[in-house]
Amino acid sequence: MSFLQPSGTIIDLGVNIDHVATLRNARGTTYPDPIRAALLAEQAGADCITLHLREDRRHIKDADVIALAPQLLTRMNLEAAVTQEMIDFACRIKPADVCLVPEKRTEVTTEGGLDVVTHFKAVQAAVKQLQAEGIRVSLFIDADEAQMNATAEIGAPVIELHTGRYADTEGAEQAAELERIHRGVLYGVSKGLKVNAGHGLHYTNVQAIAAIPEIAELNIGHAIVAHSVFVGWENAVREMKAIMVSTRLGARK
């Protein structure tokens, strides 16, 4: 847990290191090293390290996951598509958490939540296989009651609500999306689910999401990597965690 909140009872930050690997792969070098980024993020207050092993390996590579797993002092949250290749790989690595996500080769980044209703049997099989290895499973979904009902029926204990549409809008549209997410959080909690959130969050839009008291964890990557260009990696992590914690504490008053 973070030095800012050792008990982890305020709000956790999962630092996504994918785009450190993106920078490395852009020139085919060995730097910047995502493993070093993960370990420094832990020192700076990250509560877990998130990374997405995509089917096309556009950023994180198999070797990154294998090398990082035994070195983490917090926990690994491995994002993976619902494919047999990825589920088998996760079962070999045995991260603390696996977050099942939708994946399309043509997308720049994840465009929406996993459709658990449509792909119920495939998701259910993946969840069962992962849980048999002692891995906690979360599903990355939209704030939709049908998707949360399906998640609860499958038996996955955690959801991560997609905040991309909130992050990409402004004004009244953003306010409506925030309200939809808030309702989704409350509904998820009522179904007995731990509720996390993430996607598109940055230093000036994370506050309203962090203020929702029932959200346990936010997973943020691209904004931290981008900000680190100007302030340094550890400072970027510390600043994001400080914003989240101070917002949550302020919301409690």
UniProtKB/TrEMBL annotation:
Reactions it catalyzes: 3-amino-2-oxopropyl phosphate + 1-deoxy-D-xylulose 5-phosphate = pyridoxine 5'-phosphate + phosphate + 2 H2O + H(+)
Gene Ontology molecular function: pyridoxine 5'-phosphate synthase activity
Principal localisation: cytoplasm
Signal peptide extent: none
EC identifiers of the protein: 2.6.99.2
Transmembrane segments: none
Keywords annotated in UniProt: Cytoplasm, Pyridoxine biosynthesis, Transferase
Binding site for 3-amino-2-oxopropyl phosphate: N16, R27, G200, G221, H222
Pathway per the UniProt entry: Cofactor biosynthesis; pyridoxine 5'-phosphate biosynthesis; pyridoxine 5'-phosphate from D-erythrose 4-phosphate: step 5/5
Active-site residues annotated for this sequence: H52 (proton acceptor), E79 (proton acceptor), H199 (proton donor)
Entry-linked Pfam families: PdxJ (PF03740)
InterPro entries, per the entry: Aldolase_TIM, PyrdxlP_synth_PdxJ, Pyridoxine-5'_phos_synth
Gene3D superfamilies to which the protein is assigned, alphabetical: Aldolase class I
Top-rank lineage group of the source organism: Bacteria
Binding site for 1-deoxy-D-xylulose 5-phosphate: D18, H19, R54, H59, T109
Keyword Cytoplasm: yes
Site description Transition state stabilizer, residues in chain: E160
Functional description taken from the UniProt entry: Catalyzes the complicated ring closure reaction between the two acyclic compounds 1-deoxy-D-xylulose-5-phosphate (DXP) and 3-amino-2-oxopropyl phosphate (1-amino-acetone-3-phosphate or AAP) to form pyridoxine 5'-phosphate (PNP) and inorganic phosphate.
UniProt record similarity statement: Belongs to the PNP synthase family.
Self-association state and partner proteins as the record states: Homooctamer; tetramer of dimers.
Cited NCBIfam families: pdxJ (TIGR00559), PRK05265.1-1 (NF003623), PRK05265.1-2 (NF003624), PRK05265.1-3 (NF003625), PRK05265.1-5 (NF003627)
Name this protein carries in UniProt: Pyridoxine 5'-phosphate synthase
Organism: Rugamonas rivuli
